[in-house]
Write a structure and sequence with these properties.
It is built from 8 helices and 11 strands. Helix 1 packs across helix 6. It has a 9-stranded mixed beta sheet, with helices on both faces. Strands 10-11 form a two-stranded antiparallel ribbon. The protein folds into 2 domains: 207 residues, Spore Coat Polysaccharide Biosynthesis Protein SpsA, Chain A, CATH 3.90.550; 63 residues, no CATH class. The termini are far apart. Helix 1 links the parallel strand 1 and strand 2. By secondary structure, it is an alpha/beta fold. The protein is globular.
Length: 288
């Protein structure tokens, strides 16, 4: 198995990319699963979303602009990856911001399960009570999580949830000139006729519902993004973070402008974290 991560997007939704970058950077075990990650879009570069973004971009060209070319973009990307020798993808979308890191042993055993059983697809996402899936139980378990099998005739037998796909299998489901919903509906009918090895494991690790609605980012996502920026700085820029004055008598700035070596953008982000609520003016030791 040669696998890569493919995240589908389009240029018009580049306002989702910073949160996308930060969640993948912070909530994926890169030491264990250091696969290439590609963002699929028309003409823009994923690296534009953040100065540290080192993920790759598959540009399919301005002739495929817009959501109506959803399937056309996916076809081009899959054919490109297949030419480069990839056999499988971990598929995701631009609004699938992970709120937690999926368990390493679960992901490892999911990959092994796909390869050993020559699956078409293993969906790795939450199965909520209102999802219209029809599945049946199997004897398979991964780290205590039951694996269930999609029954032919199930609605959304083919869907755009996070999943491990055999590239050849996914290619057989694609038809040209389909938007996202048309692709799921048409692909589902095609899958009923051609596929038998489609499974799901119920693992909650991302939630599209809190990110955006009808093309506008939600306040919940803005709060998530604020905290992601803070967490990324904590992990990657020691000079960006300072201790509270408590046990070690350390000095902290009382104003973001007092930080050294920060860009105007970084200072602006710090102001956006409700600075005054984080730090008390009491017991600050100065001139030490």
């Amino acid at each position: 198995m040669k696998i890569t991560i493919l995240v589908q997007s389009n240029d018009d939704y580049d306002w989702l990319w910073e949160g996308l970058f930060l969640t993948w950077k912070l909530n994926w075990n890169w030491e264990e699963f250091n696969y290439p990650l590609f963002l699929l879009t028309e003409t823009k570069s994923f690296s534009e979303c953040h100065k540290d973004c080192d993920f790759k971009t598959i540009n399919v060209g301005e002739d495929l602009l817009g959501s109506k070319n959803y399937s056309n973009k996916l076809l081009r990307a899959l054919l490109k990856l297949k030419e480069e020798g990839y056999t499988h993808i971990l598929y995701s979308q631009d609004d699938s911001w992970s709120f937690t890191r999926p368990d390493t042993l679960v992901i490892k055993e999911c990959l092994d399960f796909v390869e050993k059983n020559d699956l078409d697809c293993l969906y790795i996402h939450e199965h909520r009570s209102h999802f219209p899936f029809t599945v049946k139980s199997t004897d398979f378990k991964i780290q205590g999580h039951k694996i269930k099998k999609f029954i032919k005739g199930s609605r959304f037998f083919y869907n755009h949830g996070n999943s491990i796909w055999n590239i050849d299998s996914l290619l057989t489901l694609q038809s040209t000139d389909e938007g996202p919903y048309q692709n799921e509906c048409g692909g589902t009918e095609r899958a009923w006729r051609t596929m038998d090895k489609v499974y799901i494991i119920n693992i909650p690790w991302y939630d599209q519902d809190v990110v955006h609605e009808k093309g506008k980012i939600k306040d919940t996502a803005l709060n998530i993004l604020r905290d992601l920026r803070f967490r990324y700085a904590w992990e990657n820029k020691p000079e960006f973070m300072y201790n509270y004055v408590a046990y070690d008598s350390s000095v902290i700035p009382t104003n973001p402008d007092e930080f050294q070596n920060l860009s105007d953008i970084e200072k602006g982000n710090l102001y956006g974290t409700n600075w005054g609520n984080h730090f008390s003016t009491h017991n600050i030791i100065s001139n030490i």
